[in-house]
Design goal:
By secondary structure, the chain is mostly helical. Helices cover 69% and strands 0% of the residues.
Length: 188
């Protein structure tokens, strides 16, 4: 996968994060609550996406379901998200999810292994399969029969469906963030 660079921290935003006028009262409140949740002055992604009022309101429950009520389990969901962010060179996703993953029990050492790939020492067999499946999904837009069989030995039917939707959601989100050049929320 070619390194796309970290355009969202270098290039000017194509759509600047909006304020009250651009977001409207409801999306402005949601963006403010989001910023407080991530402990940042603003939640740039929400302040950009929130400018499409109705689409943002439909995006939130779907994203929230994948992120907060994952049938994969929160650690596995973060593994997939971190791997997608790494493959896509999405510093925005990585910045957000390194923090969130730590709060969900994915320590810095495990995160380094996720970034290293499925052959990294110290990964469980389940983690290796999830990373391999994520790599295939993002790079080839599918999962090989062999990898699917391995994945299915760890995940049930609903989890398999959710894996696909989660990887697709964060792959698409990485592309959206890069294209819109959403600015980072944190200086680090």
């Amino acid at each position: 996968m070619p390194d796309s660079g970290i355009v969202n921290s270098i290039e000017p935003a194509r759509i600047e994060p909006g304020g009250f006028r651009e977001l409207g009262p409801l999306n402005w409140v949601i963006a403010k609550i989001g910023a407080k949740t991530i402990r940042a002055p603003r939640f740039a992604l929400f302040n950009v996406l929130g400018q499409h009022h109705l689409l943002f309101l439909t995006f939130l429950p779907y994203s929230g379901m994948l992120l907060g009520r994952s049938k994969l389990g929160l650690k596995d969901a973060e593994l997939v998200i971190l791997r997608v962010g790494h493959l896509r060179g999405s510093e925005y996703e990585l910045q957000q999810h390194r923090r969130l993953a730590r709060s969900r029990g994915v320590d810095a050492e495990t995160q380094a292994r996720i970034f290293e790939g499925p052959d990294a020492e110290g990964l469980t067999d389940r983690q290796r399969v999830l990373i391999t499946a994520t790599d295939e999904f993002v790079i080839t837009r599918s999962v090989s029969d062999q990898t699917w069989k391995s994945l299915a030995s760890y995940l049930d039917r609903k989890q398999l469906i959710e894996f696909c939707l989660l990887a697709a959601q964060y792959d698409g989100l990485a592309a959206t963030i890069a294209t819109l050049r959403v600015p980072l929320d944190f200086p680090d």
